[in-house]
Amino acid sequence: MDNLNGKIAVVTGASRGIGRDIAFALAQAGADVVVNYRATTEAAHSLRDRILALGWRAVAIQADVSSAPQVADLIHQTTEQLGPPDILVNNAGIARVQRPGEIQEDDWDYVLNQNLKSCFLMTEAVLPAMRQRRWGRIINISSVAAQTGGVVGPHYAASKAGMHGMAHYYARHLATEGITVNTIAPALIATDMLAANPSASVAHIPVGRLGDVSEVSSVAVLLAQNGYITGQTINVNGGWYMS
Ligand code: NAP
Question: Which of 26, 165, 176, 187 is within CB 3.0–4.6 Å of 237 for a Cys-Cys bond?
């Protein structure tokens, strides 16, 4: 297992929910952390301060990761303030709950840009420095929606399934360069996103309860520490989808 001491992790959408817990768990495992967020500045700053209190370096950087110029600025600021990223967690995402017949072209484009284009932009932005140093960990947070269709909408399911194809491509092409690319596919983790979706019923979950953010973040830390797992999807879903 690789030691994360001194590694620099960028976690997108780290102000709340799953991303927040992954960022703190990576810091507890020894990494310096960039807490990226879009709007909730106070929450991002409070997480940065919790990580600083552990004794590691941390910065909170506002950027909409669906925007190429903002992604370029995020990576520029990261490199200036902490150094080039070693670990990228593509966690930022949105769920726009809509049924067939309600979804307009704008909805489709918005969800795909927020959830999938962001993952591509961030991956391309961190790769040059990872390839130069021949070490990198890229961890994508998709969803059970990629596998079952889920309970948000076809745009959300497609955006998450796209992350799987992207991860397979990058994993194969980067395997000889010390860079692993994996995906965590969660289901029904107790966060703000889940609370906003009335269709997200625990009845879907064989283990009979919602998941906790720590049950996702522990897998993210494992993937960051392990150099022999690549191109995989790890399902953290209470048994909803069994592979
Ligand atoms: P959440 O509680 O709604 O938090 C979303 C986070 O993403 C927030 O920190 C938000 O920032 C950030 N964000 C959203 N769009 C962004 C953008 N364009 N640029 C930068 N940051 C952005 O969601 P969550 O439940 O933790 O979900 C995290 C990820 O897991 C998502 O990709 C989601 O699709 C996936 N997922 C969640 C579940 C679940 O059951 N919760 C299940 C499957 C998959 P602000 O705070 O600044 O708004």
Answer: 187
Residues 5-39 have pLDDT tens digits of 999 999 999 999 999 999 999 999 999 999 999 99
Within-domain flag for 3: no
Range of the domain at 179: 8-236
Tell me which residue has tokens 């079952």. Answer: 148
Catalytic residue among 37, 110, 156, 228: 156
pLDDT in tens, 145-155: 999 999 999 99
- Cβ of 196 below 6 Å from ligand 1: no
- Cα 62 to Cα 14, 51, 88, 98, distances in angstroms: 10, 17, 16, 28
Asked if residues 87 and 2 have their Cβ atoms less than 8 Å apart, the reply is no
Mutate to test the pocket of ligand 1, among 35, 193, 205 (most ligand atoms within 8 A of CB): 193
Residues in contact with 106: Cβ distance below 8 Å, sequence separation at least 6, in sequence order: none
Provide the whole-model pTM. 0.98
| Count of the separate structural domains present in the chain | 1
Task: Give residue 47's pLDDT band: very low, low, confident or very high (50, 70, 90).
Answer: very high
231: CATH:
3.40.50.720
Is 241 inside any structural domain?
no
Q: Give, using CA atoms, the residue closest to atom 16 of ligand 1.
A: 92
Query: Does 2 map to a domain?
Result: no
Residue 243, in any domain of the structure:
no
